[in-house]
Amino acid sequence: MISTAVTLKAQFYDLDPMQVVWHGNYPRYLEEARCALLDRIGYNYPQMAASGYVWPIVDLRIKYVRPVRFAQEIRVEATLVEYENRLKIDYRIFDAASGEVLTKASTTQVAVEAASGELCLESPAILIDKVAEVKT
Question: Which end of the chain, C or N, has fewer beta carbons within 10 A?
Answer without folding.
Answer: C
